[in-house]
Known about the structure:
Elements: H1 3-6, E1 10-13, H2 18-25, E2 27-29, E3 34-44, E4 47-52, E5 57-61, H3 67-74, E6 79-80, H4 88-95, E7 97-100
Parallel strand pairs: 1-7, 3-6
Antiparallel strand pairs: 2-3, 3-4, 4-5
Amino acid sequence: MSQAAKEKKRYYRKNVDFFNLVEKIKLWPSRNGTLHGIKSMTRRGDLAEIVTHCNRRFVIHNSRHSRAARWMRNKWFFDLCPTCRVPEWKLQKYSSTVMSQHYGARL
């Protein structure tokens, strides 16, 4: 695979529906900074339940200004979950994603 294909940037709108963004990226930063891979997501109105590959469950709110939304937009995390085993290609794809105010897919 060529270097240009690896570094292809994906553009998403900054203020899209938070649940759509989480479903698209399939990654979740927990409160202690660990990045988990999402196995399934169940929506219930303004709440959603995320089940990770390590079988942890998170109940999240549909908020664009939450801690997790900011961490996902800025791509902050401290550690990877050893049980979820997030693949390297997914981390590269995540790191090359750009959140823009006026440009990108609206999901």
